[in-house]
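Treating backbone geometry as a discrete language has practical consequences that deserve illustration. No coordinates are needed to read the tokens, only the vocabulary itself. For completeness, the protein is quoted in full, as a sequence line and a line of structure tokens:
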Amino acid sequence: MSATQKGYPAASYTPQPGEPLPHQLLAALAQHRMATTSQLRELLRPNTTRQSVSTPLNTLRHKGLVDYTVLPQANRTRAWYLTGEGARLTRDFPALRGRPAYPITSATAASLKTPHTLSVVRAHLAFAADARRLGHEHGPWDWTPEVTHLLGEGERLIADALMHYTLTRPDGQSTKLRAFIEVDRSTMSSERMAGKLIEYARFHLYQPAPVGRRTAGPGITGPGWMRWYPLFPRVLFILTGASRRTLANRTADTAQRPWHDL
């Protein structure tokens, strides 16, 4: 059965900020690849009950648009993701236009990606909670997972996420911030963390060659990142999955490296 036959006309479906929760749930899963019921509630309806989110999720599952995998050793917590039909339906959502699609559309793929994907969502929720508490702006669509940029010679930089955050001051003025986010669950060695930082340094310096040239040369107006950002985003590493002492040691080890040589 198609999405149109199920009552979701894909061609004319245009989500708006104030639209019904089921539509927002589909967009959030398309954006984040996967999220638990509690995470979706905190992201979209932080002041409501769990049931207010689980009910429309189950309705969407009956329509064949979402499915879930049960997290092991987590009190049978459900991690939701889009089905192939759901991924096709959300492809042209206005909030998601221009963003690459990396959907998780099977239980097997979900089980492989669950730990890291949900950790990245948790990082987003921490910033969102702070923004609400402080009166700043950081909503569901201000976090783009898996942002990719070319580094030249066929290599790419893939950030876990790109965050947009707006600081609002008492005088009504605001400051827009951007940051590349890297989430390490203590599965990345200190050497690998250093290598990731070097990739960001390379992206900061990388100048793409003009069309028809193989190497950079006259005619280059600036680094390639200026095509995407008015200022180079900050790089934030979020460490988790270990004791506070271990994480402090990993931070100190990274900070002590000779970054002045980059």
Summary: Confidence is low (pLDDT under 50) at residues 1-17.
